[in-house]
Amino acid sequence: MPSRDAGLVLCVDVGSTFTKAVLVDVTSGALVGAASHPTTIESDVMDGVDRVCRELASHGPVTETLVCSSAGGGLRIAVVGYEREVTAEAGHRVALSAGGRVVHVSSGSLTGEGVRELRAAAPDLVLLVGGTDGGNAEVLRHNATRLASARVTMPIVVAGNADVADEVSAELARTGRRHTVTSNVLPRIGVIAPDAARGAIRAAFLEHVIGGKGLSRGRGFTELVRAATPDAVLQGVELLADVRGEDVMVIDIGGATTDVYSVLRPQGEDAEIERDVAGSMWHERTVEADLGMRWNALGVVEAASREHLSLSSGTQEYAVQVTSDTAHRASTPGEWEHEAELARVAATVAARRHGRPRVVGDRPRPLADVGLVLGSGGVLRHGPDAVAGGVLNAVVTDHAGGWTVPAAAAQAVDTAYLLFACGLLAQGHPAAARTLAATIA
Hints:
Elements: E1 8-14, E2 18-25, E3 30-38, H1 45-56, E4 62-69, E5 75-81, H2 87-97, E6 100-107, H3 112-120, E7 125-128, H4 138-149, E8 156-158, H5 165-174, E9 179-181, H6 195-209, H7 221-224, E10 225-228, H8 229-244, E11 248-253, E12 258-263, E13 283-288, H9 297-306, H10 313-324, H11 333-355, E14 372-376, H12 378-382, H13 385-396, E15 410-413, H14 419-425, H15 430-437
Parallel strand pairs: 1-4, 4-10, 5-6, 5-7, 7-8, 8-9, 11-14, 14-15
Antiparallel strand pairs: 1-2, 2-3, 11-12, 12-13
């Protein structure tokens, strides 16, 4: 796709804790400026967006503004599938790769209790999957009928057995359920086809979800948002891997979650063998909703205990403090030591979960050939240099963690926080996005 007219493009990420912005000259792909401000959820998120815009206004007129958002809990997805280890698992992986936080997974025929559990999870969107193309159709039909009759109002993306897609659509339309039908996420055993479902989830997020979170009082926020933040970041990681011509792994330590992205090029037997019944996703994101530097700092403490990772008593007390004061910024050497410990555990546990076999008998994710391990997140960008080095080194030396550690990866930090901007720019300004990606590490 050719680039649009040249100029300064403002890319903004409205996060759960901070709103970050970078200004890019799309003629050259150069970074012009950056700004950040605490996310103003308590008033109107556009207040924070306006603030970063004003900070960057001296660089010249902005020709376009692109926004992604994970504020207000991001995109909460429920997956309704057939077999937990097959289509439900495939749907779960696709939902994560689409930038969603999976808050509920059900498998098999929905019961009344199952519908109540789904509603209690309060998803923003339901991903309805089930059966390979030409395979089992009864469960998908049944679940569509249940959702059509249940008191659910969130949009539904149908990505199951193509043979009954029209029938499922008609059933949902019968009761006026908002829904989109796309191609099957698991067209045959061992093959995951995520792209169409990712696109449909993205469209539903923009059309139905972001405006319903009450983040802004009609000041143009909904029109500006192009993607959920994790979706934009994954696109940025895909671009970075392509520009570098090597496998890339990114560990993004946030205030609420720690996300791990890996973009791999299957080689040898991995390129030929369908590794498990739910297939393999070579471009994958996992999100750990219990591992965060602020909102879920106590989850890091609990994970350290479960994973037998050391965490000092002082850091455990610090976790209690920042959980109750999520806007707190470390300012002393002692506080940065606590930040580093929390980040080390969050990154290590998140990497283990990303790389470990999903089921008994499966193999770990093939991360040995990763050429770059890239850190992201405020704690790595703003902390003393030793913080980032210690966190990333802990990950690449975690040989007791039950996953395949990158054997000879370079380490770097996305210090300017550009991955999300690369993802936002990738469609409209691909040349600028590639140039910007090349500056990251």
